[in-house]
Amino acid sequence: MHFFKNVAFGVSMGCTVFVLINLFGSWIFGEIFLEAITADFTHQALGSIIVGLACVLPSLIYQVERLTFLLQTAIHFAISIGTFIVVALSLKWLPTSSLAITLLMLFFSVLLFTLIWLLFYLYNQSEVKKMNKKIDELINKNNIL
To answer: Mind telling me which Pfam families this protein's record contains (predicted)?
Structure first.
């Protein structure tokens, strides 16, 4: 059941990021930003869903306890960014006319992935602290009785 929740979360994340990027892109650059999206909406939306899944599903690697946290993060990062690059290049999300612009866009993509990963990491750390505090309270309560 956990796998299906992750699939649903990956699809929703991909779609949410797709909408936000296009909303802000059209807001900043105008309707021209949406021309590629509207010309091939189905492929563009499916590409976003694939990237969303590629970012969420590899997070299952964190359940493999014999791997170090650094290796888990590297595997998650490689799968996510690797999938993004393949999809981004095939759907022309990254301009290939200039190497400098392509590298700059890749840099911002890595930065965005890192920021999202960091936010999830901090959220999960906060949840762990809450759970540990609740466990300590229950232990102390039972010891008093």
So the answer is: DUF3021
CA angle centred on 70, ends 66 and 76, rounded to 5°? 90
pTM score above 0.90: no
Q: Which residues make Cβ contacts (< 8 Å) with residue 87, sequence separation at least 6?
A: 47, 50, 51, 93
DSSP state of 96: -
Tokens of 11: 């699809």
Q: What is the pLDDT of residues 26-63, one digit of tens each?
A: 999 888 888 878 889 999 999 999 999 998 999 899 88
Cβ–Cβ under 8 Å, residues 39 and 32: no
Q: Is 89 in contact with 56 (CB distance < 8 Å)?
A: no
In the chain, what's the furthest Cα-to-Cα distance?
Answer: 72
Tokens, residue 88: 């981004």
pLDDT given for residue 106 in this prediction = 86
| Both tokens assigned to 64 | 């493999």
3-state secondary structure of 93: coil
Contact 40, 51 (CB under 8 A): no
Q: Residue 145, Cβ neighbours under 10 Å: how many? A: 4
